[in-house]
Amino acid sequence: MRYPTNDLEHFWMPFTSNKAFKANPRLMVSSKGVECTTHDGRQIIDMSSGLFCVPAGHSRPEIADAVSEMLRDCAYVQPFQHGQPAAFELARRLKALYPGDLAYTFFTNSGSESVDSALKIALQYHRAKGQGQRIRFVGRERAYHGVNFGGMSVQGMVKNKEAFGPGLVGVLHMRHTWDSNERFVRGQPQNGAELANDLQRFCDLHGADTIAACIVEPVAGSTGVLCPPKGYLQRLREICDKNGILLIFDEVITGFGRIGGNFAAQVFGVTPDIMTMAKALTNAAIPMGAVAVSEKVFKTIMDATPGMEFFHGYTYSAHPAACAASLATLDIYEKEDLFKRAAELSPYFLDGIFSLKGIKAITDIRGIGLLAGVDLAPKDGTPGARGSQAIQDFWDAGVLVKMTGDTACIAPPFVSEKKHIDRLVETLRKVFSKY
Ligand SMILES: Cc1ncc(COP(=O)(O)O)c(C=O)c1O
């Protein structure tokens, strides 16, 4: 083992019960494909792709080689008023995958930064059009858009907000789309398109010309995989168009083949004006995020602004190592036709997951592509307790599954084989049947 594992005191871990973890650590010391090795020498399979971010499997040597080469040749170029060719090449390659007229890419280092950058782009767009009064954002309950102040403000998960004050002013939240009367739905629910009308109600109540953008995850991921009801995203698009509001899709989880097409926008046939990405962009080998914008958004800002057009950027925007990692990742997706492989594995995966219906503790199952959410009834009425138990039970059983509260969020790597799905389903059955 390269690093000691006996002194864990000084790392403040993110989104973790630090005290409990340090009393009973779960450490990984190596990972390959869908398999990881724990610090105590056990093999476990990763059925959540880390945090939905390693579709091509862990520790791909092609990516390591590309990064290593870049770090030796050109480890850093300052991205303000200077550049390096890999960033331009990556933006060109990404454009070929984007839906509709999305064509220009702004690079960041994470999903959270992508969301905050997207919100700023929306504000700047309206200012460029002489509508600087459009400063409100519309988000949604049960959304997750990262942890920076912009994303925190528009997201809708209470625990991620309650300690941190009001955030951005003027943010409005539409209702979430989960319907307790329509459970165990594979793909898109039939009912609920009218929930998009919340956006129109905000226009009517607050004035459409005060709203800059509406941001949604096409499939709400971290909150437990909530598919949009049929017609819902189309309705949002119509309301945005009618009222001059920009539509932002946060595709940090759904991007890059997770639900069946390149992006969810293509799967559902609705093109946003702005789209955020991260995670699978580099197969998680190096942190990177991105924001794609339409021709209209880009040209409006460029044409209206002399000199520097956007006073925003990061020291590590389009970092050379991240660009190299992403280009190598896109090569793997293409060479191994991984988005197609994911789409072909999806029915087998969803059959397995939905076969769990009937287990007493399971109150709902949802899924699309290689993404599924399984809700458990809270233990003794305490939300999250059963989820914490499940994390340990999965660890002991040798299968990694992400829990959000009492919901299992399952997202196998695209390189998984049927035998991995079988083991996943068998483990879920065994663990959940005990509850
Ligand atoms: C939809 C969505 N947006 C934004 C983020 C934040 O990404 P990051 O953790 O890279 O900041 C996430 C992370 O899970 C996400 O799922």
Describe this entry's structure for a reader.
With 435 residues, this protein is α/β, with parallel strands linked by helices. The protein has 14 helices and 16 strands. The strands form three sheets. Strands 4-11-10-9-8-5-6 form a seven-stranded mixed beta sheet, with helices on both faces. Strands 7-12-13-16-15 form a five-stranded mixed beta sheet. Residues 51, 110-112, 115, 144-146, 217, 221-222, 250, 252-253, 278 line the site of pyridoxal-5'-phosphate.
As a whole number of angstroms, the C-alpha radius of gyration is 21 Å
**How big a fraction of the residues is strand?**
15-25%
- CATH first level of the largest domain: Alpha Beta
Name the CATH superfamily classification of the largest domain.
Type I PLP-dependent aspartate aminotransferase-like (Major domain)
What count of domains describes the coordinates? 2
Mean pLDDT: 97
Helix count equals 14
Strand count, sense and closure of the main sheet? 7 strands, mixed
Order of helices and strands: HEEEHHHEHEHEEHEHEHEEHHHEEHEEEH
Helix fraction, binned, reads 25-40%
Quote the distance from N terminus to C terminus.
Answer: 36 Å
Q: Which class best fits the helix and strand makeup?
A: alpha/beta
CATH topology of the largest domain: Aspartate Aminotransferase, domain 2
CATH architecture call of the largest domain: 3-Layer(aba) Sandwich
How many DSSP-defined strands? 16
